[in-house]
Design goal:
Arc Repressor Mutant, subunit A, 3 domains, five-stranded mixed sheet, elongated
Length: about 325
């Protein structure tokens, strides 16, 4: 029996295999990289084989390592199920919850969502990291990433939360000065504030039913921050394509006006909650994901409030 690997060594091995990094595995396990390296070495010595080929740039499972990982994954999954069955003794969310989100969504919507969540789950301590880059959950030690993306390919489990709509808008004062916009082609004569991800080959895209239109725009200001473009739009600098979760309040207050309300952008995005599947049995992580899905509902509040302003929203 003394030659059998311990459960802790198998857990360390699994985290190294999943993250591909000693340092990332150490962060997830809250131990030092040297402790992770020592555990792996001891496991290999016990088994008498090399499990992971290590170089200065990469870590790759050997054939024996892949075989062990298959069995280890099954063992840890069975262990998670066993622990989950006893979670009735602590089935409520409690303790730390580490979230990451884009800056714009975090400022415009997430703070309010978290406020409602901690009213329901007061024993949870939420730590929010706002980053516009795609955060690696393992590297940053995050529990849940709220990501707005057009992609459907990633390395995490995910739950679809809401569609993200973008609208073209301007300040009333700007439109009084430079003229109304009746068709997409009118934008050729206007100052455009451009978010790069919302252009296709340098053009803004418009869709109404089966009709698609493309208008090439020369931005007088280009930024990858929708908050920066919002500020410029409010200052009557031009027309911008902005997400409804950012501008819904400004539209309802009359500070901004939707131009071409019958058109939607042909470029679409979706809000997802991304997480490690192995962590979903954690009541705090599962509880938050369930909460935000219910809180947003079939039509998120920021879109529900704009249905009178945006005809295409009534079609959903």
């Amino acid at each position: 029996m003394k030659n059998l690997a311990s459960l802790s060594q198998l857990m360390v091995f699994a985290r190294i295999a999943e993250t591909g990094s000693l340092s990332a595995a150490a962060r997830e396990l809250n131990v030092t990289p040297s402790a992770v390296s020592k555990s792996l070495t001891q496991l290999e010595q016990r088994l008498g084989i090399l499990l992971i080929k290590r170089t200065t740039r990469s870590m790759t499972l050997t054939e024996g390592g892949r075989a062990l990982m298959q069995h280890t994954a099954a063992i840890l999954e069975n262990l998670e199920e066993a622990l989950s069955e006893t979670s009735q003794f602590r089935s409520y969310p409690t303790g730390p919850l580490l979230l990451t989100s884009s800056v714009a969504f975090g400022c415009a919507q997430l703070s309010s969502i978290i406020g409602r969540f901690i009213e329901v789950c007061p024993q949870v301590q939420v730590n929010i990291s706002l980053e516009d880059r795609c955060v690696d959950l393992a590297e940053e030690n995050c529990d849940v990433a709220l990501r707005i993306t057009a992609s459907t390919v990633w390395n995490y489990a995910s739950r679809r939360l809401a569609p993200i709509h973008w609208v073209y808008c301007a300040a009333p004062g700007y439109l009084e000065r430079y003229g109304r916009i009746e068709t997409p082609d009118d934008l050729a004569n206007h100052r455009c504030l451009v978010y790069p991800a919302m252009t296709l080959n340098g053009s803004w895209t418009f869709q109404r039913g089966n009709e698609a239109r493309y208008v090439r725009v020369q931005g007088c200001m280009v930024s990858n921050s929708s908050l920066a473009l919002l500020a410029a739009t409010l200052e009557q600098r031009g027309v911008a394509c902005l997400p409804t979760y950012v501008v819904s309040g400004n539209i309802l207050s009359g500070d901004l006006e939707v131009v071409l309300p019958d058109y939607r952008s042909a470029i679409t995005h979706t809000l997802y909650a991304m997480y490690f599947r192995s962590k979903y049995t954690n009541p705090t992580i599962r509880g938050f994901i369930d909460f935000i899905a219910d809180d947003l509902g079939p039509i998120p509040p920021w879109d529900a409030s704009l249905r009178a302003h945006l005809p295409f929203l009534t079609e959903e």
